Amino acid sequence: MAERLQKVMAQAGVASRRASEQLILDGKVTVNGKTVRELGTKVEPSDKIEVSGEPIDSREKLVYFLLNKPRGVVTTTNDDKGRQTVMDIVDEPERVYPVGRLDYDTTGVLLLTNDGDLANRLMHPSYRIDKVYVAKVKGIPTNEQLEQLRHGVTVRTKQNGRYTTFKAAPARAEITSTNTKNHTAIVKLTIHEGKYHQVKEMMKAVGHEVLKLTRERYGMLDLAGLTPGEYRPLRYEEVQALKAGKQYRKSAGRW
Q1: Strands (E), 106-152
Q2: What homologous superfamily does CATH list for 130-218?
Q3: Is the domain 64-125+219-244 a CATH 3.30.70.580 member?
Q4: CA distance 19 to 3
Q5: Which residue intervals define the domain RNA-binding S4 in the entry (predicted)?
Q6: The pLDDT value given to residue 124
Q7: What average pLDDT does the structure give for the chain?
């Protein structure tokens, strides 16, 4: 059965569907030896598809892995500075890529897959997947500052030399512990967006520098049983729950 070219590319693990569309527009994709630039192009299972001269296998097995990302590792498939990447840790025969990113010094839950369709959905703001972060911050936030986070704060981030200002969506925010001697606090934030340096900038907007940051949960996936640098394949029911957009239910202690 004929399917859209970008969908087949995403299913083959080339990239997310959106990134696959850009590869098509850039003229890097050929079907049966002819360059294709039209996004509506449909292909048959028997068609030969190549990306930058390399054939893809649309029958590639879809795989899903959960990594406890350690500090000092970059969330990219390669790094021009020679730093260790998450791909150096997840040593599997299938070509996978990270869903979203965690900063170099941020630890915690990271999903990797070759399922471009699911990756694209999970990263889209409309999917509203919960991401739970635990931050050690300088100073002890006041109730007023926590309320600011709960109503949404305006943050300014810099990426690739450009500044972007946006209002973060309301977050669930609570202090889980304080250290009056060191004048620090542990703050748990639940957000569903994934802007660059978002949690750090949100805390900065209310006057608190983030000293350490961990993503504790992504949807219903948590770090149970995984030490930093360890990873495991997702169970079938976890994959299905992700596809259904299920979240963790605190009251029930399950998803």
Answers
A1: 106-113, 131-138
A2: Alpha-L RNA-binding motif (3.30.70.1560)
A3: yes
A4: 17
A5: 3-71
A6: 81
A7: 89
